[in-house]
Amino acid sequence: MRANTIEPLERLRSSAPYSSKIIKAGALIGDTKTLLSHWDVNASVKENINRVQRDNVFGKASRSRVGDILAIFRHRYLTEESVTKALVTLVRGKFPAAALERLFYFHSARADRLLHDAVTEILAPVRARGLVDINIRDFERSLARWVDEGKTTGHWSEATVTRIAQGLLSALRDFGVLQGAVNKKIVPAYLPVESFAYLVFYFKQHQIRS
Minimal CA–CA distance to 16: which of 158, 124, 117, 105? Predict the structure, then answer.
């Protein structure tokens, strides 16, 4: 009886939308700029990644840490050649920092469903009520519920839920969605005109309509 109860949930988790990868790599804006500034647009993704690892352009002591970061960066920024080339050009062209960070946030949220839904399902309802203060418990409650609903790729313990909540808060602060070192607040929505122009072009290229 117990096996029959557990099996459907395990099958559900095998295709669950939420992973814990935010623990391994948050916003990492500095490392993202480093990667893109060293990128060779005439080489393949595999060739670039091998060179970045070999040359240790991030200056990390742990090779496994570099591997974790690159795996996540590949998913965020390297799956579309046109996006990679555009971001490389913007980084090298001294694109305004605030505008560039919004683009990193956009592509990261598209690549990570957990990051996306943390904003749309946790932060947005709070902001809609006219509130701006956010604390880790707001995230922990939603994460625990998603675990119970089988939406996570594994069964996250309370300690893991806390670490993921902390990772989300830190990433969203670094992306400019939240502000505050300890006590977090939702930042008023602002999109630089440079970011807006990029996104309009991106949506047109992908035929994404609101």
Answer: 117
Burial of residue 15 (CB within 10 Å: 0-12, 13-18, 19+) is exposed
Give helix 97-111 / helix 193-206 axis angle, nearest 10°: 40
Residue 191, strand partner residues:
none
Distance of CA 161 to the CA centre of its chain: 17
Count of Cβ atoms closer than 10 Å to residue 145 Cβ: 10
The CA distance from 142 to 61, in Å, is 35
- Express each pLDDT in 37-58 by its tens digit: 999 999 999 999 999 988 888 8
Q: What are phi and psi of 6, to 5 degrees?
A: -75, -40
Residue-range domain boundaries for the chain? 19-206
Overall CATH class of domain 19-206: mainly alpha
Contacts of 42 (CB under 8 A, 6+ apart): none
- pLDDT classification of 181: cutoffs 50, 70, 90: confident
C-alpha–C-alpha distance, residues 158 and 143, integer Å: 10
Query: Comparing C-alpha atoms, which of 113, 151, 114 is closest to residue 13?
Result: 151
Residue 163 CA: distances (Å) to CA of 110, 154, 157, 170, 172: 22, 14, 10, 11, 14
